[in-house]
Amino acid sequence: MGENTIVPSIVVYVTVPNREAGRKLAESIIKEKLAACVNIVPGIESLYRWQGEIHQDSEELLIIKTREPLLEALTEHVRANHEYEVPEVIALPIKGGSLKYLEWLKNSTRD
Amino acid sequence: MGENTIVPSIVVYVTVPNREAGRKLAESIIKEKLAACVNIVPGIESLYRWQGEIHQDSEELLIIKTREPLLEALTEHVRANHEYEVPEVIALPIKGGSLKYLEWLKNSTRD
Amino acid sequence: MGENTIVPSIVVYVTVPNREAGRKLAESIIKEKLAACVNIVPGIESLYRWQGEIHQDSEELLIIKTREPLLEALTEHVRANHEYEVPEVIALPIKGGSLKYLEWLKNSTRD
């Protein structure tokens, strides 16, 4: 299988209010090499509790693929470029997959 | 970074047959404080094997964000409020992200 | 709770250029018992870096549920049946959920 040349990688979920905000945030994340790829999932309906009330909003979901060591910088970037007071930024560990893809992910992101 | 005040958290996938069933289940989950937030992803096409045959159905996907210790109660709640004989309930570990978000998740869910 | 009869399981993400390609790949994966279930998520907009340029494409996302030991065979199957040079195949660990569902997942996949 050859020497493992990939880095610990993660999938990060961030929800945004609409396509425009999602695209703008995704472009800035890729430009800054904070992630290799962002998928924008349309037409999300979100239910959540905020200050004791249940809310129902339309959102879009960004599925971001990046290196684990970039999570803090990515979280700070989202915080600084998002209209919500407390934007969702949650990371899921990638535990394997196509080594060629994970190699590409590594080469498309900052050290 | 301050004392880690968050709790082990998870993303849980549950598929449902349609929007109405999805919304009803999501609302009950939030009301019971079994999760802080539920995203409903529309227009899913599902292919699966059931009793030896390959089936193709339209579904919606609930992406549920909650505390890990609530997984068993959430699984039981889904089982009791879902029309499928064996509903999908699978949990993915959240390994980090925005501490403010994870704090909000903790405060929006039961102990 | 009875003896844990389930196997380590994973959620695998694979992106595809369109519904036709997604359906064909999903059917072949289920037929080969390389997974128990595939959800196709429509209308994805993907932004990514390829050979130094930022690209924006329409895609669909396959969310595949299978056993962890099948990841290598699934990755090879995707590589051999996908039009991309480097298709995305990334695995997220399932850490719990409905035992009945996970039992069904095990029985719907190859050993």
TrEMBL record, chains A, B, C:
Gene Ontology BP, a term? response to metal ion
Q: Which GO terms describe its cellular component?
A: chloroplast
Q: Which UniProt keywords apply?
A: Chloroplast, Plastid, Transit peptide
- An example of a Pfam family matching this protein is CutA1
Q: Which domain of life is it from?
A: Eukaryota
Tell me if Chloroplast is a UniProt keyword of this record: yes
Q: Where in the cell is it found?
A: Plastid, Chloroplast
- Matching Gene3D superfamilies: 3.30.70.120
Q: What is its main location?
A: plastid
In the record, the note on similarity to other proteins reads: Belongs to the CutA family.
Protein's name in the database: Protein CutA 1, chloroplastic-like isoform X2
What gene is this protein translated from?
LOC104608605
